[in-house]
Design brief:
It is built from eleven helices and five strands. The chain is α+β, with helices and mostly antiparallel strands. It is rod-shaped, with a radius of gyration of 39 Å.
Length: about 375
């Protein structure tokens, strides 16, 4: 019977299975044995009684089960004189015990098997030569059962460790994916909301004095909110698994910084872009660089009150350097750089996920500075 079939049996059925299978085998062996006695009702009863202790094999240790098995085996040998199948009884018990014990314990059980076999067969051996051969054969079979049970236990433990590792890896990946989605939502919403808030203020302030500028601000609000909604749909679509329904659009990269700069310029912030040759960079580096610049610009507009921002991006060998400087009052003074915020920690997480670094703090000449170094061949988790 295969292991899969055994696993589907109830504990009670598995416990009683040897009592149902072994007695017919013992009786058949006795009938075909040339020296076997005539089959009697007492012989049938002896076969069943001798197997009954096996029902407790999963509950008792070897020291407790062996005294129960030896009298039954002796009774079977006395009544049936089977040729060689009586050894199946201790084999079943030893196999079960070995699957539930540590290897060190199984070694001790193997050493204890020898005297038990001798005690069981000694009364039925006609001469020393026969005794030796029977002891060697039955001992070898019992040791084989222990080795097989130990192999099953080892394989089961290996499978349990593998499952645990897979679950741990799955949880780790799930946590990373949640963090990635949280970063994406934060970057999209924060930048869009800041831009909308600024443009709404401009529209409210200039609605009567300069209706055309107010209309321009409202159009900027419409564009920013539309882009934010599209990005959120794409992100939430991936989260739900609706790949077929989620909008398909290229991931933003360093070549899309003009759009970010345009949003700040519309809000009255002077933005200077100095972007070197970034063609051919991996998508993960492009996306991380874009999000770092986006968050830095958002912080400059929301927290620092900057009037001028300078963005400089250069590829230097195997590194991409991203620098964002503003002339504002500093993000840390307004809470963006603190440990409770998501902005600077989120930028740093994006950089470290690629194997890079990010520093954010007051600049020597005043204002606030964000500087990141991203390896060109960094990881793809950002």
């Amino acid at each position: 019977m295969s292991g899969a079939v055994l696993d589907r049996l109830s504990p009670a059925a598995r416990a009683w299975l040897p009592v149902a299978v072994l007695p017919p085998i013992l009786l058949a062996d006795s009938l075909i044995s040339a020296e076997g006695p005539d089959l009697t009702a007492f012989g049938v009863l002896a076969a069943v009684v001798g197997c009954l202790p096996l029902v407790l094999r999963a509950r008792l240790g070897f020291a407790a089960l062996a005294p129960l098995l030896v009298p039954g085996i002796v009774l079977i040998l006395w009544q049936l004189e089977p040729g060689s199948t009586v050894v199946l009884i201790p084999m079943v018990a030893l196999f079960e015990l070995a699957t539930r014990s540590e290897r060190r314990r199984n070694v001790w059980v193997a050493l204890e098997v020898v005297p038990c076999v001798v005690v069981s067969v000694l009364p039925f051996a006609d001469d020393k030569g026969e005794l030796f051969s029977v002891v060697v054969r039955n001992t070898a079979l019992c040791l084989l059962a222990i080795a097989a049970g130990d192999a099953v236990r080892t394989r089961r433990e290996s499978m349990d460790r593998l499952v645990a590792q897979q679950q741990e890896e799955s949880q780790r990946r799930l946590g990373e994916e949640r963090l990635r989605i949280a970063r994406e939502v934060h970057d999209v919403v924060a930048h869009a909301m800041v831009a909308i808030n600024v443009q709404a203020g401009v529209a409210a302030h200039r609605l009567d004095q300069d209706p055309e500028q107010a209309r321009t601000a409202l159009r900027a609000i419409k564009a920013a909110s539309g882009e934010a909604l599209a990005d959120l749909r794409a992100t939430l679509g991936v989260l739900r698994g609706d790949e077929g329904e989620a909008p398909v659009r290229p991931a933003a990269g360093l070549g899309d910084l003009d759009e970010l700069a345009a949003g700040l310029r519309a809000a009255g912030v002077e933005v200077e872009l100095d972007v070197g040759d970034v063609s051919g960079l991996p998508g993960a580096v492009q996306a991380a660089g874009y999000r770092i610049v986006q968050e830095a610009l958002t912080n400059a507009l929301r927290h620092a009150g900057a009037a001028r921002v300078r963005v400089r991006i250069r590829r230097e060998g195997e590194l991409v350097r991203v620098e964002v400087d503003d002339d504002g009052g500093g993000a840390a003074a307004n809470g963006a750089g603190g440990g409770s915020g998501s902005g600077v920690p989120g930028m740093r997480e994006r950089a470290t996920a690629l194997g890079g670094t990010l520093e954010a703090g007051p600049a020597a000449e005043g204002g606030w500075r964000v500087a990141a170094e991203l390896p060109v061949h960094g990881g793809a988790r950002a």
